[in-house]
Specification:
Oligomer: single chain
Distance between the termini: 32 Å
Order of helices and strands: HHHHHHHHHHHHHHHHHHHH
Largest sheet: none
Structural class: mainly alpha
Number of strands: 0
Number of helices: 20
Strand content: under 5%
Length: 297
């Protein structure tokens, strides 16, 4: 039964919408795709989206896009476009709220009218990230296998998408998981494939880098054997959420929540340091310490 659930979940994950973000920035493309994938596999719902972004917030985000506000209102309320486009932001929000409350339109229809790229363009990106991680899916356990399999599928998608959008390097993933953790949790077959790959690379005079390691143990393998919370805490949070500004850094969070850390007047006058620019990703490094893997195998 467990295998059937896992297979069905991965099939659903592969049958996601044909949406392809046209946003130029990798950090914004990633956010659009992560949001879509969470909805497509049923990890999150349109009702969840409306809970995070009620009608007033949606219309406020579209305050400079009267035509898009009108497009949503025309379908949701039946009002003619030429009337809808003249409505104020506040009035548009009220009309959409009434339409939802009265069942004239459902959340799924509203979300479908709001293109993912437009959501990222016009809504607060940190708020979108909070929506994407709403249920803390990385803490899923085996209590509900369907939920756990969706969590695995979504985390694997995030890793692959972040690599594609160049938010992560293969080295970021390997260093976050750690070679020691690979050796500890991967099954003998996977470790055997890694050792074979390393030997073949060595015989051919080629380095065995992070890229080759993750070719032998891709994201779908990692999420099956490495605890999701470990990947989340050591890869997604520092390398994506904080690095891309989706979530506040710990110091920034502490300053907002811990009143005992309030700076004195002199410190308050001091301007904070400018955020450091993200360095170009380093070249893949050969894994010299993979000798440990061979010995332990």
């Amino acid at each position: 039964m467990t295998e059937e659930i896992a297979e069905q979940t991965w099939l659903e994950s592969e049958k996601i919408s044909a949406f392809k973000s046209k946003l130029h920035e990798g950090r914004r493309r990633f956010l659009a795709h992560a949001m879509c994938h969470a909805l497509d596999i049923g990890r999150l719902t349109a009702e969840d989206f409306i809970r995070h972004f009620p009608p007033g917030a949606i219309m406020e985000g579209l305050k400079d896009r009267a035509s898009l506000r009108a497009k949503i209102l025309t379908t949701a309320t039946g009002v003619k476009f030429k009337i809808a486009i003249k409505k104020s932001v506040a009035s548009s929000g009220e009309d959409l709220l009434i339409a939802l409350d009265e069942g004239e339109v459902d959340p799924a229809t509203v979300v479908s009218l709001f293109d993912p790229d437009d959501r990222v363009r016009h809504l607060d990106n940190q708020a979108i990230w909070k929506f994407v991680i709403d249920d803390e899916f990385w803490e899923s356990t085996g209590t509900d296998m369907a939920v756990l399999e969706r969590a695995k599928a979504h985390l694997a998608f995030m890793l692959d998408r972040a690599l594609e959008d160049k938010l992560l390097t293969h080295q970021d993933i390997v260093e976050g998981v750690t070679v020691e953790r690979f050796v500890e949790v991967l099954p003998r077959e996977a470790l055997g494939n890694i050792i074979i790959g390393a030997l073949e690379a060595g015989r051919g005079g080629a380095p065995f880098t992070d890229v080759e390691l993750l070719t032998q143990a891709p994201s779908t393998v990692l999420v099956e054997h490495v605890p999701l919370a470990h990947i989340w805490t050591n890869v997604i949070v520092p390398k994506i959420a904080r690095a891309q500004g989706y979530a506040a850094a710990p110091a920034e969070t502490d300053a907002r929540t811990d009143e005992s850390n309030t700076p004195d007047k002199d410190q308050a006058k001091t301007k904070p340091d400018a955020p450091a620019k993200r360095k170009a990703p380093p070249a893949p490094q050969a894994h010299k310490n993979f000798a440990k893997v061979k010995e332990s195998a």
